[in-house]
Amino acid sequence: MKVQIVPTILTQNYTEFKDRLRFLSKYFNYVQIDCEDGRFVGNKTFYEVSKVKSLKSKVDYELHLMVKDPLREIKKWEKFKKVKKIIFHYEAVRDDKKILEIIDYLHKKGIKPALAINLETKVEKVIKFLPKLDVLQVMGIETGWGGQKISLKVVKLKVYKVRKLFPKLDIEVDGGVNLRNAGQIVKAGANILAIGKSLSSEADIIKFKKLIK
What we know:
The protein is an alpha/beta fold. It is built from 8 helices and 8 strands. The longest helix has 14 residues, at about 150-165.
């Protein structure tokens, strides 16, 4: 499978968001917005839909919803055509019926549904949802804060298990991905790498793009 790099935007305010987007849009046409509500996770980030919509940019978006009420947030963004994929957390819902309802809702809106699992959550908890999902996102760190060290052994095991069961499913790894571990993560079976602080310069981007060729 072709490996995709998705740069992430985890910022505290509109100015930081614009600066990060301006930098990334020189090299990418697709980015992830980290949406943190200060309730599901301790951190709070900028993700005001009206302001994001107002920005003139060529990029499309995926949203990583680290929020207590994902469906409420989805409804704020669903008409924004640049949002192609929405990732919500198993741990924010923890109800099989509600998770399936959110997946179906996103499909109906023409948005790719993706489910994220925290570091402590076993893949067995979400196997039943995978045939209906476009993407499973495996978190490599404690959800909510950038710049942490990845729990590589845990990530590789989860990715490997899912890849064996679902050869065609997109598997995204988010949190702590860098040039030293990216190759191992891909080898385990991931085909999407969400990368934040390790993509801070043009030199970083060039190195990553060479790595996944």
